[in-house]
Amino acid sequence: MQRISLEEKVTNKKVLEGVGLQRPELLLTIQRRKMKYYGHLRRHDSIQKTILEGKIDGRRGRGRRRQTWLGNIQETSQMKMCEVCETALDRRRWRTVTAHLGDGMAPT
Description:
This is Endonuclease-reverse transcriptase. It comes from Elysia marginata. By secondary structure, the protein is mainly alpha-helical. 12% of the residues are buried. The protein is extended and about 45 Å long. The mean pLDDT is 84. It has helices at residues 12-19, 23-43, 47-53, 69-77, 81-89, 91-99. The chain has six helices and no strands. 58% of the residues lie in helices and 0% in strands. Helix 2 crosses helix 5 (81-89).
């Protein structure tokens, strides 16, 4: 956006100031877009939906579990996963959930 080279020593704060955004505002925008995309995936049959809902066979590696995309959606929406899946199928309800993201209102 600002054509800053990776070799330049510019902090994230300086880049965000140059664009005119604050960090919490940027993170909220990312969360909203992620939630909208999840709703889109749930409503359409696609390879992405198959991959998203798929399970991988085999053993889990050592250490702490990695954060999953679906886990992040659940954390952002503050709903149980079954509620998230059901709500995302109804476009009108999902839009209200994503619209009230970050303003403290409880999802319905």
